[in-house]
Amino acid sequence: MSRPTGWHRDTPNTDGCAPAANCVFRRRTPPVLCPATTAPWDSGRTRQRDRGVRLNRQPVADPVIIDGRPLADQLAQRTHAIVTATVEHVRGQVAFYRTLPPEVIRRDVTAIVRRNLELFVTTLHENRDPEPHELLSIEQSARRRAEERVPLTDVISAYHLGVQLWWRTIAELAGPDDADALARAGVLLQRHLQSATRAVLAGYGADQAPIPPQDHDRRRLYRALTSGEDVAEAARSVGRTLAPRYWVVALRVAAHPDERVEGIDATVASRRKLRRLEYALDRLGRGETLHMVTEQGGGALVPAPEVDPESRFEEFAAHLAELGRDIGAETVCAVDSAVPQDIPEVHREVDELLRVALRYHRRSGVVRFADLAVEYQLTRPTRVSRINAAALAPLAGDPSLRLTLETYLAHDSSTTATAAALHVHSNTVLYRLRKITELTGLDTTKTRDLLRMAAALAAAPRESP
């Protein structure tokens, strides 16, 4: 961490009442400053220190002067150090923040702490209260925390703890003759906290409000298109124009790694994953995607080319395949295209195609009917399905036999590839195949019996883990 000019990092103060020697920042002899800036004189040029706040250099009437220098300038020079100390302090004092995924702390929490400090320094420099538009980022951040089910009391506590640390830092900057200036700074800091608190409450209140109209309209149109309602009327009622053709997508999303980490709040991680998924789908359709998704997946309708959509499928599939990377979780997508009046039927079919892909243990990627045509056909329920399923009933007592058979068929009846996939010796595979033949009466060396076994596996699939 870079050190602010004239200051050094010391032991953090976490109890709120430690003596000056134990404060986060301790004063040394200040440097000689260029008259027009907060940065030290540098060969006739000025430079910004510590990635600090860029302040408006227009003259300000009656600035808050602490120890002979504008307080806003001193805080601006120490932006990075103060932000880092604030995040550490909040995590140390609010237990819930220690359960947040590292990504949330590194990006969201640190960013909003910095935004708050920059806003306070700006209003301190200009001797005014924050404007409503300047508080929007705080309100939006609070809305995200509400979506992630972060308790409101913990968010408010974090803001108060941050302001307490800033106040201690300001107090340590003051000299014995700065009582009046210190009082003015305290009033401005308190007014900043009041404004920030109102923005946080607005963000949490907005989370309890109805779905925003534009999202509600898109969901209504998605339901109309997939259920076979009068889509023309639905489109008119929400003031939207239907695309001539859509990619119909069914998707399943696995858990994000943060959802499985002990001590990390899984709800926060899953809500963040959902938000990223919604954003990625919107971007895929340039803001025109219709979707209804949860943390586990769902469906989407993405506008497709009206003429010859197949020529653009590879490009679209490549974007779909990137969803998993974008949201940080494995994603399987089943997709086909349809004109609006055919969407209900195609929607049901791609949902079923997705289930088939999951039956055959697809973990990620994009599938179409051509990819799983045989598997799709074999899994259609018929009277014969029950007969086929019963053929493998004798294997129920030994799961390793069924797993071996599935792997053997998936690897084109190669014992060597099957052994490598199962991490066993080839002789073990041969032994298990002979055991399967003995129990079922179906010979794994005969094509007809292998087809029967494949149909039986499709009729009675093993549950995905």
What does this protein look like?
The protein is an alpha+beta fold and 465 residues long. It has 3 domains: 7-207, no CATH class; 244-378, Reverse transcriptase/Diguanylate cyclase domain (Alpha-Beta Plaits, 2-Layer Sandwich), CATH 3.30.70; 383-459, Arc Repressor Mutant, subunit A (Orthogonal Bundle), CATH 1.10.10.2840. Helix content is 53%, strand content 9%. It has helices spanning 71-77, 79-93, 102-126, 136-147, 152-173, 179-207, 213-227, 231-237, 266-284, 313-321, 323-327, 343-359, 373-378, 383-391, 399-410, 415-422, 426-440, 447-459; strands at residues 7-9, 25-27, 65-66, 69-70, 246-253, 290-294, 297-303, 331-338, 365-367. It has a 5-stranded mixed beta sheet with strand order 6-7-5-8-9. A hairpin with a 2-residue loop joins strand 3 and strand 4. Helix 3 (102-126) packs across helix 6 (179-207). The two termini are 44 Å apart. Residues 1-51 and 207-211 have low confidence and may be disordered. This is PucR family transcriptional regulator. Residues 81-209 form the RsbT co-antagonist protein RsbRD N-terminal domain. It holds the Pfam family RsbRD_N. Residues 402-459 form the PucR C-terminal helix-turn-helix domain.
